[in-house]
Design a protein that fits this description.
It comes from Coilia grayii (Gray's grenadier anchovy). The chain is an alpha+beta fold. It has 3 helices and 20 strands. The protein has helices spanning 2-104, 115-137, 191-195, and strands at 142-155, 161-165, 174-178, 181-188, 204-213, 218-220, 223-227, 234-239, 244-250, 269-273, 276-283, 289-295, 302-311, 315-321, 324-329, 338-344, 357-358, 366-372, 377-382, 385-395.
């Protein structure tokens, strides 16, 4: 009985093992299937990631190309805008020149006038042209031939500044502008008072309605003319008695470059001589050359402009004498200042034929120079030293 029972147990165990093996085989197959699917999914994810990276690279390359093209378009747009502005400025200047020429010429006669009347009108036109030239030139006829002497009046204030006088008859006052940007100026009763060590006790302060910029101011007939700070090209006229703005003008094409390469704070330089009020500025469309503009001091209207051959590079200052601009040059490292470019609106002084005029050895450079027509003197600001230059002069030969 024992043996059959053992055999029966063996058969049952064998049956049990066979049933277990049959149950494990489907599970293993299922796991192998899932593993294969996961491997396929992983491969797809890798390919997807590679595609995303490739797409990102293409997008970056496209963005870089687009950015470069946009930068090029911006440059071209700026160039076109600059050229359009240049053409507009030149057209405006040409229109002013034409208006000036037309204002000096007589009215055109009718085509059917008699020959005798036509000849008479031609003669009248020639006489008018002659009178205009004489009137324009006879304001004065002084030409500089050399610097005679230099007098140091005192040392005060900042490295940059200007001091000047009103050339109006009977005026002895000194006006003092310290620095390159402020809204106050100091007035002294006379040159002697300014020279005195305790001059500040006798001086009076004038508060202007708008701050000034640079060192190129002018005083004429009881008014101060200056470049208003914070503006590109606005010149204002302030009456000194009531300190109110009586007039102003936006000078076309001015204020884009410093007038002088060695005086970076001054963009508009107002000057006074025997003929009245002038403005000097540098024009980038002319390669930085200086432009002279004659202003009517009463109405602030532009009378005429002249494009000159004088460079702004390495220039310190300039000043006007009898309608002639004298430009003072120096080195960026300091040295002896000299007048190396002259422009005469009457064409009676030729720059190439004018010898170089040297100033006495001073300090470093001139921050400003303002001509005083009455005494033929130059009021200069040299590294904080207020100096006066006197000139050797001669009479200009004016052809009519």
């Amino acid at each position: 009985m024992y043996i059959p029972t053992l055999h029966l147990a063996s058969l049952l165990l064998l049956a049990t093992d066979t049933s277990h093996a049959q149950r494990i085989s489907p599970d293993l197959a299922m796991m192998q299937y899932f593993q294969a699917r996961l491997i396929q999914l992983e491969e797809r994810l890798i390919r997807c990631d590679q595609s995303i990276q490739l797409y990102g690279k293409k997008m970056y390359d496209f963005s870089s190309t687009l950015h470069g093209q946009m930068s090029g378009m911006n440059v071209l747009s700026s160039e076109v805008k600059s050229q359009v502005e240049s053409v507009a400025l030149r057209v405006d200047r040409l229109e002013r020149d034409m208006e000036y020429v037309q204002s000096k010429m007589p009215n055109q006669p009718h085509v059917e006038v008699e020959d005798a009347l036509l000849d008479q009108q031609v003669k009248e036109a020639q006489e008018m042209k002659k009178k205009v030239k004489i009137t324009f030139a006879n304001a004065c006829g002084t030409a500089l031939t050399g610097v005679k002497s230099m007098k140091i009046v005192k040392k005060s204030g900042d490295v940059y500044g200007s001091w000047l006088r009103d050339p109006t008859k009977g005026s002895a006052q000194i006006f003092y502008f310290d620095g390159t940007r402020n809204d106050t100026l100091v007035k002294f009763p006379s040159l002697k008072t300014f020279h005195d060590s305790n001059s500040t006790q006798k001086a009076s302060t004038i508060q202007l309605p708008h701050p000034w910029q640079g060192t190129g101011h002018a005083i004429l007939n009881g008014s101060v003319y200056y470049h208003q700070a914070g503006t590109t090209n606005r010149i204002i006229k302030v009456h000194l008695l009531n300190c109110t703005v009586s007039d102003s003008i936006l000078l076309p094409g001015a204020g884009r470059l410093p007038v002088y390469g060695l005086s970076p704070h001054t963009f508009l330089h107002l000057a006074v001589d025997e003929m009245g009020l002038w403005v000097i500025h540098a024009d980038p469309e002319l390669g930085g050359n200086l432009v002279i503009t004659k202003l009517n001091s009463g109405t602030m209207h532009i009378e005429h402009s002249w494009d000159t051959h004088c460079k702004s590079q390495d220039a310190e200052v300039a000043f006007m004498v009898c309608g002639t601009m004298y430009v003072v040059y120096n080195s960026r490292f300091g040295g002896r200042s000299s007048m190396r470019c002259v422009y005469d609106i009457h064409d009676t002084i030729v720059s190439a034929e004018t010898p170089v005029l040297f100033f006495p050895k001073g300090y470093t450079s001139h921050a400003s120079m303002q001509y005083y027509p009455k005494d033929k003197q130059l009021y200069s600001w040299d590294e904080g030293y207020q100096t006066i230059y006197k000139f050797d002069v001669k009479k200009k030969t004016v052809t009519t």
